[in-house]
Amino acid sequence: MNTYQFDPTNKFTEVTDAMLYEACGILPTWVMAKEYAHKPLLEALKEQYQFPMFESEKATITEDGVFQYPGDPDQHPLIKIQRGKETFYQYEHAMIAIVQEDGSSYVSRMD
Known about the structure:
The strands form two sheets. This protein has a five-stranded antiparallel β-sheet with strand order 1-4-5-6-7. The chain has a two-stranded antiparallel ribbon with strand order 2-3. By secondary structure, it is an alpha+beta fold. The relative contact order is 0.22. About 20% of the residues lie in helices and about 25% in strands. The protein has one domain. The model has no long low-confidence stretch (mean pLDDT about 95).
């Protein structure tokens, strides 16, 4: 079962959930697509996106989902989607993160 939460860190208090939903575009729909539910999330996203995805190896994701990259300001998630044991975060500037149950993460840009 998928669950989602807009603005899980309460950073975007000046906007509505509808505005955040629009800012996210199609990616939440892809994350929650039932026809891909049996596949690991990264595999499902790669199949739907159909463009190369490159991992950002220097990026880290904090326990509350904040995206950190050396030299850049922190980015707070627009949305958090719990998909089984995987957690999906989407940020401004087309950045996404997939966090596994063990805390390991995959960070990329999907624009």
